[in-house]
Amino acid sequence: MFRINNTLVGILHTLPLLLSIAAMGDSAYIRVHGDCQKVLQYPLLFGGLFIFVISTLGLVGVLCRVNAALYLYLLATFFVILAFSPFTIVALFVTRNNAPDRAGPSVGYGVGDFSPWLQHYVTDQRNWDVAQSCLVQKRVCHGLAVDANNNDSLAFKRLTTTQIGCCKPPLRCGFTKKNATFWEAPKAGPLANDTDCRTWSNRQDKLCFNCDSCKGGVLANIRSQWRHLTIFNACVLVLVTIIYVLGCYAIRNNRLEYSNYTTQRKIRMRIPSTVI
After folding, report:
1. 11 and 255 in contact (C-beta within 8 Å)?
2. Contact between residue 175 and residue 226 where contact means Cβ atoms under 8 Å apart
3. Whole-structure pTM value
4. Which residue spans adopt a coiled-coil conformation according to this UniProt entry (predicted)?
5. Residue 17 contacts by C-beta under 8 Å, 6 or more apart in sequence?
6. Long-range contacts made by residues 249-254, C-beta under 8 angstroms, separation at least 24?
């Protein structure tokens, strides 16, 4: 009959344990070194902490052969599977494209390229005021062009989507770059008569922070983080499901070992003493 050794199951239980520690470490790194859109910080922290607790519970149950701990572990794992499955589906829905990917220094993003849920993040003025204030305080546009010696083709290859959308006027406006911090509009006016071209300002606390292209760049960054979170959720879901099945085998092994032990004990008790 096929049986799985409890030690092997215990070793496999260390995988989600290590994954949870890595998730909490990433959360701490994002808090210290992250940008203004710290989308992953709390999901990684709480998800990693929860997985750490239930993985430890499962490890104790498997290695110490404590069925009560294993039952609690399997119950918690079952709820993790139930929670992560719809959350992963929602994350896939949120990160879908409303328009083909066209990010880059020559075009950038617009708010309409994203799902309605993400659009709400920047169309809500209170959210955007907080995000804009953070972008200014973090000085995301400070000294970007200096490193590239005023060579746009080099500078913009190294920019994030947020910097591409917020730190320079959209290319369609036809502005001419005069130095690292100043762009000049055409004498006849911007080539494109849209809000972004009229919103641009050479003031370092204004720039294009109120532009649609800036909001699109921020949303592109958030969507990228959500995609990473979706991959993390999918890996956890697959791993936890496998461990859940193995935990059921561990309980079965414990029961068989206990049954064999009690059977052998009864047999020994029934054997009459041999009189020599």
Report:
1. no
2. no
3. 0.74
4. none
5. 51, 52, 55, 56, 59
6. 249/3, 249/4, 249/9, 250/4, 250/6, 250/9, 250/61, 250/62, 250/70, 251/67, 251/70, 251/71, 251/74, 253/3, 253/4, 253/5, 253/6, 254/6, 254/65, 254/67, 254/70
Length of the chain: 276
Give the model confidence (pLDDT) of 65-92 as tens digits: 777 777 888 888 888 888 888 888 888 8
- Three-state DSSP state, 110: coil
Q: Tell me the backbone φ, ψ of residue 178, rounded to 5 degrees.
A: -95, -40
**Residue 184, SS3?**
strand
Task: Please tell me the distance from the alpha carbon of residue 68 to that of residue 75, in angstroms, as a whole number.
Answer: 11
Rg (CA), the chain: 28
Alpha helices (runs of H) in 95-211, residue ranges in sequence order: 116-123, 125-138, 152-155, 161-166, 195-199
Q: How far apart are CA 51 and CA 216, in angstroms?
A: 34
CA distance 118 to 37: 12
Q: Residue holding tokens 């092994």?
A: 253
